[in-house]
Specification:
Blueprint: H1 2-6, H2 28-32, H3 42-53
């Protein structure tokens, strides 16, 4: 999104399937996937977001460039956030 927003590099494809798209961690599947043998559980996702943000996730000041699921519209150049 940042590359597209800056319009310096043409973006031809986005593959948005990672659990790191949103820091809210409130999806049904985030609660259902509890097997500790799995690589990316809800607990690990929370640790990842805490590490990335330097605080608890879910604040109102998190930009769409940080958490793409917060974007108002993924089709727009600015995606609802500023760098």
């Amino acid at each position: 999104m940042l590359a597209r927003g800056r319009a310096k590099v043409p973006v031809v494809f986005q593959f948005l399937i990672s659990p790191t798209l949103a820091e809210h961690n409130q999806t049904t599947s985030s609660y259902e996937i509890t097997d500790p043998r799995l690589i990316w559980t809800r607990e690990i996702n929370l640790i990842g977001w805490r590490s990335y943000l330097g605080r608890e996730p879910g604040g109102t000041d998190v930009l769409a460039y940080t958490a793409p699921a917060r974007a108002e519209n993924l089709a727009t150049a600015r995606a609802g956030a500023t760098p």
